[in-house]
Specification:
By secondary structure, the protein is of the alpha+beta class. 25% of the residues lie in helices and 25% in strands. A ten-stranded antiparallel beta barrel has the order 9-10-12-13-14-16-17-18-19-20. Strands 2-3-1-5-6-7 form a six-stranded mixed sheet, sandwiched between helices. A two-stranded antiparallel sheet has the order 4-8. The longest helix is centred in the middle third of the chain and has 24 residues. The two termini are 39 Å apart.
């Protein structure tokens, strides 16, 4: 079985040079990219006899392959490269597949099914796309999820598309999904390709973990009152870096070989959309719940962002940490319709966040800032940065920080009351609270930045 090669072999293996035997990813080399990296880059084995060349299928049946992904990520281009035709329409001005279409590739013994993006330019909803798929398809053998290597950073719709796909297809698809990193020929940096694979695998891992945690994959057994919990560990997804048709890199054969590997000798999977799971996760156009009163929504947001979070560093010891806790403002005018929270961030190498936070506060390396949260709309809140707390006014320990008794004087805030130069509007969705730069979920906080390709994922500890 072929696995994604070590970064040093990317250029030779996938980008047009002479293919060489694949080296292996090791978890420790990419641990800095995501908190789930130890799982996502477990050591794998392969040998020189497993050449990345097209092998004729043993069972002779054409395998049905769903080609999924956002609009404009190269799904149709990939299909044309594998079929050797231009049957999948590609528009220079109008990006995106408009309808589900089948494209046979008889010489490769596969049938590729092009699907519209979940969040496309025509405004299709995920529910609409899934209904189209369920209306024309009964089963599939494997899924190719296209993710562009050339995108500078992961976006909110990347996460949403993967969450919808994983939730809709259910546990049966976990061993059938392959990541196709499209436009790999446009990315000369081997490290960037490795990062993009790590990011995509991590989003799938997060989506799968959420389904398991919510009990969506538990099995109902006849005669049993309670469902049987899902206890399996979803496998690490195969990933193939793809270029352009006929570039000599051999990615077409590598992708097809991987497709055959996950489907040969296995029965097709019925395309049974998990509508109940999608409704439970708030991913369908269902009747929206009435938004809570303004201050109740503010309190719900404060509760969501409160806690301790961390991300392991590259060495596996040091880590970036965040402690968010409600804070009282001494000198606050009465009747002010807002709440306050203190966000303290630091780098720590201690075994526990509590110890690391206290040590960072004492040596002055922790940064504490106060944010004001106020109603912004029917289902949204605004978080305004009121500036950092002077060192002399910071809490002296983790326990004091989270005690609920620590106060900050209004006059000590750099920006004053509501005078911050940074404000984010967070909208309440089925996945949590989302803004353009941050996503606050039940078990993590994801930070996005235009200056950094890799989103920062802070895992909830408490």
């Amino acid at each position: 079985m072929w696995h994604t090669p070590h970064p040093q072999n990317f250029s030779r293996r996938f980008l047009g040079f002479r293919p060489t035997p694949a080296a292996l990813f090791h978890g420790e080399s990419l641990g800095r990219f995501h908190s789930h990296s130890s799982q996502a880059f477990s050591t794998c084995r392969c040998n020189a006899s497993e050449e990345a060349t097209w092998a004729a299928p043993e069972d002779g049946d054409e395998k049905i392959v769903l080609v999924c992904g956002k609009t404009g990520v190269g799904k149709s281009s990939l299909i044309n490269a594998l079929t050797g035709t231009t049957s999948a329409e590609i528009g220079a001005l109008e990006v995106g597949t408009r309808a589900i279409a089948s494209h046979p590739a008889p010489e490769r013994e596969i049938e590729l099914v092009d699907t519209p993006g979940f969040y496309d330019v025509e405004g299709r909803t995920p529910e609409g796309v899934l209904k189209e798929m369920a209306g024309v398809l009964e089963e599939y053998h494997s899924v190719v999820y296209c993710q562009p290597a050339s995108d500078r950073r992961m976006r909110l719709e990347d996460q949403q598309s993967i969450e919808v796909l994983v939730t809709a297809l259910g546990a049966a698809a976990t061993t059938r999904i392959i990541i196709a990193l499209t436009f790999g020929n446009e990315v000369p940096s081997e490290e960037t390709l490795a990062i993009k694979i790590a990011q995509t695998r991590a989003l799938f891992s997060d989506a799968q973990a959420r389904c398991i945690a919510e009990g969506l994959w538990d099995e109902r057994v006849e005669g049993e009152e309670e469902p049987v919990p899902y206890t399996e560990t979803p496998p690490v997804l195969e990933a193939v870096v793809c270029g352009i048709a006929g570039d000599g890199a051999g990615w077409e054969d590598e992708l097809c070989s991987t497709l055959r590997h996950v489907s040969t000798g296995r029965a097709p999977v019925p395309l049974a959309i998990k509508w109940a799971s999608l409704r439970k996760m708030g991913m369908m156009d269902v009747e929206p719940r009435a938004p809570p009163p303004p201050m109740e929504l503010v309190n719900e947001f404060i509760e969501a962002m409160t806690g301790t979070f961390s991300q392991a560093g590259a060495d596996g010891v040091s880590r970036r940490c965040r402690v968010a806790s409600p804070v009282a403002i001494d000198g606050m005018p009465s009747g002010f319709g807002s709440s306050f929270c203190c966000i303290t961030e630091f780098e720590g190498a201690a075994d526990s966040i509590e110890e690391g936070c206290t040590a960072a506060l004492l040596r002055g390396s922790a940064v504490s800032k106060v944010v004001m949260v106020m109603p912004a709309g029917e289902a949204s809140v605004m978080r305004v940065d009121n500036g950092s707390v002077p060192r002399r006014r910071q809490a002296k320990s983790y326990q004091e920080l989270v005690s609920g008794k620590w106060k900050v004087k209004l006059g000590d805030l750099k920006s004053g009351l509501g005078g911050g130069d940074q404000a984010d509007t967070f909208v309440l969705t089925g996945s949590g609270f989302q803004s353009s730069s941050e996503m606050i979920r039940d078990r993590s906080v994801i930070l996005f930045s235009n200056d950094v390709e890799v989103p920062t994922v802070l895992k909830r500890e408490t």
